[in-house]
Amino acid sequence: MNGHKFVIGVVLASTSLLGGKCFAGIIDLEFRPSLQVVAPGETVSVGLYAVSVDETDDVISVMDVVLTWDPAILSLQGVVNNGPYNWLSSGFPFNAIGGLNVDLTDGDATYTARSRFAPQPSAIATSNGLLVTTIQFVAVAESSTTTLSIVESIGIATTKVVGDIPGFDVHGQLNGATFVVQSCTDSDPDDDGDVDLVDFAAFQQCFGVSSIDQFAIDCLCSFDSDNDGDIDLTDFDSFAAGITGP
């Protein structure tokens, strides 16, 4: 049976760099969305990572991250704290500075994380990146491009990362993500109402695709049955089971 779903593609977009410099202790913030195909109303999960710019591990004691998005395309649901560090607090507090979290449906918010106190271990940003949390949205409409951004500030709400020096902000680059949200037809890229050898030819061209480009998006849109961001033998089994035409 043909259905429609959304495919979410990712392009990182750098929005700032502290003082235009890179030196020891700087921590970049970036989104690493899982490349996924979701049906309308399903969840889009976006990993927020803290990345040490140098080869050393850097302490995080406090983090405030100001986000913006298009609420007509994405609807904020909250966070899943599935990273390796057990934060003292992690989420969108109602009383966040600047009042952005009073209304979480308007396209801006402040995410806040607080590290645990000694003698418990602090959060550590590594050069590979610490998964801070996973922020979840629901895709509510199609768009050729829509951006989830980390911004320096909105009013008095400010993005900051405080390390082991109290009050000293060490945040560096702020990398958002640009999404392509488009409707798709499962296993039937020519949209002729059946799954046949024409569609199999398209599947052959797509087999093995996992890179993030427009061709990959079209392939994942049609054939990524398990939503894992590539076209593999699992997807072939699903495609073969759904063949209905000559």
Please tag this protein with its features.
246 residues, mainly beta, Immunoglobulin-like, 13-stranded mixed β-sheet, two-stranded antiparallel sheet, 3 helices, 39% strand
Question: pLDDT under 50 segments (min length 5)?
Answer: 17-24
* N-C termini distance: 16 Å
What's the SSE pattern? Answer: EEEEEEEEEEEEEEEEEHHH
Q: What is the averaged pLDDT score?
A: 84
Overall geometry comes to elongated
Number of domains: 2
Specify the helix fraction band.
Answer: 10-25%
CATH architecture of the largest domain: Sandwich
Given helix and strand content, the structural type is mainly beta
Biggest beta sheet summary = 13 strands, mixed
Rg (C-alpha, Å): 20 Å
Broad CATH class of the largest domain: Mainly Beta
3D architecture notes:
The protein is mainly beta and 246 residues long. It folds into 2 domains: 6-182, Immunoglobulin-like (Sandwich); 185-241, no CATH class. It contains 3 helices and 17 strands. It has helices at residues 197-206, 214-223, 233-241, and strands at 6-8, 11-14, 27-33, 36-38, 43-52, 58-60, 62-68, 74-80, 89-91, 108-114, 123-125, 130-139, 143-151, 153-154, 157-158, 160-162, 171-183. Strands 1, 2, 3, 4, 5, 7, 8, 9, 10, 12, 13, 16 and 17 form a 13-stranded mixed β-sheet that branches. A two-stranded antiparallel ribbon has the order 6-11. The longest helix has 10 residues, at 197-206.
